[in-house]
Amino acid sequence: MQLLLRGGIAVDTDPVRATTADILIDDGRIAAVGTDLAVGADVEVIDAGGMLVLPGFVDTHRHTWQAGIRAIGPDISFAGYLDRVLGRFAPRYRPADVYAGTLAGALECLDAGITTLVDWSHIQHTPDHTAAAVEALRHSGIRAVFGYCSTSPSATVVEEHMGHDLVTMAIAPYGPEIVDEAVALDEWRLAKELDLPVTVHMGGHGAASAERGMDFLVRNGLLNPRTSYVHGNHYTDDALRRIAGSGGALSVSPLVEVELGLGVPVTGRALAAGAPTGLGADTVVSGPGDMFSLMRAAYALERARPNPELTTRDVLHAATAGGARTAGLGGVVGTLGVGRQADVVLLRTDLLGVAPAHDPAGAVVLSADTRAVDTVIVAGRVVKRGGRLLHHDVAKVLTALADSAERLVVPA
Ligand SMILES: [Zn+2]
Predict the structure, then answer these.
(1) Which SS3 state, helix, strand or coil, does residue 207 take?
(2) How many other CB atoms are there within 10 angstroms of residue 396's CB atom?
(3) Domains of the chain, start order
(4) Among candidate residues 219, 182, 224, the one with its CA nearest the CA of residue 200
(5) Which residues surround ligand 1, an ion (CB under 5 A)?
(6) What's the 331 CA to ligand 1 centre distance in angstroms?
(7) DSSP 370
(8) 256 alpha carbon to ligand 1 midpoint, in Å?
(9) C-alpha–C-alpha distance, residues 373 and 291, integer Å
(10) Residues 49-58 pLDDT 10s
């Protein structure tokens, strides 16, 4: 089955540039980009006239299970987050709560044009919790990298969920800045045993901790291209170059990092060091869940620094192609390149606040918001059309989320 996105303004991301073009999707992949494309007889056509057509956004770091405790911690510090979220609420999560939060969180992503999600899931109390999280991601229709984080990690539990096309596995170690080095080594050993990528919180807890953590990685030979470092704001430029040299990537959560006191987002320095860099929402407990907010936060914080070099194009790149590389999916998603998976978003420009979109890429970063997300496609499957999510009863999802939230926040 072919799908033709006709007459939109194609905003590609590597490098960022915009042209009026049709996009042909065949068998879940981008088959052609251009004008007067030859199409089969059974082609389905979506009129993209007046819309910006871009690769779906990639969220490189989100604790998706937390959707049910959204906005419960405005103004909290990192200590407050550990105490309230991980100390008080997390232990109350049953598998059903993990499912409700993860499904709502993943649908929230799709609704907002995020087609790939790195779900950093540290709610694995039991194998049933893991199954609930993975099931919710699969059910949502999003492309996800499930970052498995457990205090008692099990290869068997992870192996059970491997082999799915859209939801793939990663190991999410607590890492040497949070747990003992021996425990951290076991976390990396598991990644090696299962041949999985690693996504780890490192470099966000002060300069001394960042240095100690880097020393651990070097000593144990753990710097490698299949690792993304989350919140690495306290890394020196040298450390960032070291990560870049190893092929590793940086995941920046620009808004929550500032809010929780995890340092100044590393976006510009990471890019200057040559490391693939992506953006992430981190937690909706104290931040927004859409990529427009994250792009603007990353951009504004960087422009506040002396001699800013970061542009809106750099930010759009980080939200798409850079994010894809950070998620370990470079070459798979993140651009409109022929052969890539057809993860595509159509944004309206005929809205107050978006029209007229003189500079298409600039308008995505600075003007558009979730109202503009008209159509969302994942691997060629249309999951949102005409501003409405398909395949899910959103009211039902929200009711389940509310039931879960009620139990989590006001215990019986
Ligand atoms: Zn995090």
Answers:
(1) helix
(2) 9
(3) 2-54+340-386 (2.30.40.10), 57-326 (3.20.20.140)
(4) 224
(5) 282
(6) 25
(7) G
(8) 9
(9) 11
(10) 999 999 999 9
